[in-house]
Design a protein that fits this description.
This protein is α/β, with parallel strands linked by helices and 265 residues long. The chain has 2 domains: 148 residues, NAD(P)-binding Rossmann-like Domain (Rossmann fold); 107 residues, Dihydrodipicolinate Reductase, domain 2 (2-Layer Sandwich), CATH 3.30.360.10. It contains 10 helices and 11 strands. The strands form 2 sheets. The protein has a 6-stranded parallel beta sheet with strand order 2-1-3-4-5-11, with helices on both faces. Helix 3 crosses helix 4 and helix 6 runs parallel beside helix 7. The two termini are 25 Å apart. The chain binds nicotinamide-adenine-dinucleotide. Nicotinamide-adenine-dinucleotide binds next to helix 1.
Length: 265
C-alpha cells in the first residue's frame, strides 16, 4: 500500500514518515510541505532522520493524492480543507489528524467523505479512543450532579485550545448524557463567572514545555470524585494509529470514519 504524508517536515509529519517506512506492506509515496517553505526540495528521508530516499519534498499535493492509496494529513485546518477535494477527486483514502477545524473546514471533510473514505480523529492513539468510550459510559451512569471538568496539558508550541482530544472527550461525555456539547460547554472561565451551572461541561487548558498530551476527565459530586487520565509520552502512538487507520480504510466504501470505527470500539 502506497502512503503519502502531507506536512512531512512537521513534528508529526516526520514521525509519520518513519512509521510508514517501518510498516510492513507499506511504501512511502512521497511527502509535501507548505509551498515556499524551507523543506520543499529537500529529501523526505533525510528530513525524518532516515537517510537519503531519493524522494524530494513536493509542494503540489495533487500529485501526491493522485499517486498514493492513502494520504495522512497532520497539517493545519486551512491546508486540510484544501486537501479534502483532492482526496475525493483521486478516490484516495484521507486520514486526518489535524485539530482546530472550523465549521467550513469540517464541511470540506464531510463533502470529500461522500466520494472517498476519510478517517478523521482528534487523537489517533488506542488508549485515548478507549478513554472516549469509557467517558461516554461513565457520563451515562453518573447523573448531572457529577460536574464534568476536562483538564488538558500540551507542549508550548500547540496553537489551538482546548485540544481536539479535550473537545472529543467533552463530546463523549455529552453523548453519554444525551445532550449536545455546544449547549453545555464552558471553554473558558475568567473574572466573575457566577456559580457553575448543573450539567455544564468545563474545560481547562495548560500549555508548557514538551508535554506530548495529558488529559484528565473529572466527575465531581458532593462527597466523591471520579477521575480518569491518559498521558501520551511519545508522538509515536499517534503515528501508529494513523497508519493503522490508513490500512483499515483502504478498500472501504466512501464515508466519514472515526478511530472508534478503525478500532472496532
Ligand atoms: P507542526 O506545526 O510541527 O506540523 C505541521 C506541518 O504542516 C508543518 O511542517 C507545516 O509546514 C505543514 N503545513 C502547513 N500547511 C501546509 C500545506 N498547505 N501543505 C503541506 N504542509 C503544510 O504541527 P504538529 O505538532 O505536527 O501538529 C500538526 C497537527 O496535528 C495539529 O493540528 C495538531 O493538533 C495535530 N495533532 C493531532 C494528533 C492526533 O492524534 N489526531 C496528534 C498530534 C498532533
Amino acid at each position: 500500500m502506497k502512503i503519502g504524508i502531507v506536512g512531512c517536515a512537521g513534528r508529526m509529519g516526520q514521525m509519520l514518515v518513519r512509521e510508514v517506512l517501518d510498516s510492513e506492506g507499506c511504501t512511502l509515496a512521497g511527502g509535501t510541505e507548505r509551498p515556499g517553505g524551507d523543506a520543499v526540495g529537500r529529501d523526505v528521508g533525510e528530513l525524518a532522520g532516515r537517510g537519503f530516499l531519493g524522494l524530494p519534498v513536493g509542494a503540489d499535493p495533487k500529485l501526491l493524492f493522485d499517486a498514493a492509496d492513502a494520504v495522512i494529513d497532520f497539517t493545519s485546518p486551512d491546508a486540510t480543507a484544501r486537501h479534502a477535494p483532492l482526496a475525493a477527486a483521486a478516490r484516495c483514502v484521507h486520514v486526518v489528524g489535524t485539530t482546530g477545524l472550523g465549521p467550513d473546514q469540517e464541511a470540506a471533510l464531510r463533502e470529500a467523505a461522500a466520494r472517498t473514505p476519510v478517517v478523521w480523529a482528534p487523537n489517533m492513539s488506542v488508549g485515548v479512543n478507549v478513554l472516549f468510550a469509557m467517558v461516554e459510559r461513565l457520563a451515562a451512569a453518573l447523573d448531572p450532579d457529577y460536574d464534568v471538568e476536562i483538564v488538558e496539558m500540551h507542549h508550548r508550541h500547540k496553537v489551538d485550545a482546548p485540544s481536539g482530544t479535550a473537545l472529543g472527550l467533552g463530546r463523549a461525555a455529552a453523548a453519554g448524557r444525551g445532550v449536545r456539547l455546544e449547549d453545555v460547554w464552558q471553554k473558558v472561565r475568567d473574572g466573575h463567572t457566577g456559580a457553575r451551572k448543573r450539567g455544564d461541561i468545563g474545560f481547562a487548558t495548560l500549555r508548557g514545555g514538551d508535554v506530548v498530551g495529558d488529559h484528565t476527565v473529572v466527575f465531581a459530586a458532593d462527597g466523591e470524585r471520579v477521575e480518569i487520565t491518559h498521558k501520551a509520552s511519545s508522538r509515536q502512538v499517534f503515528a501508529k494509529g494513523a497508519v493503522r487507520a490508513a490500512r483499515w480504510a483502504h478498500g472501504k466504501p466512501p464515508g466519514l470514519y472515526s478511530m472508534r470505527d478503525v478500532l472496532g470500539l
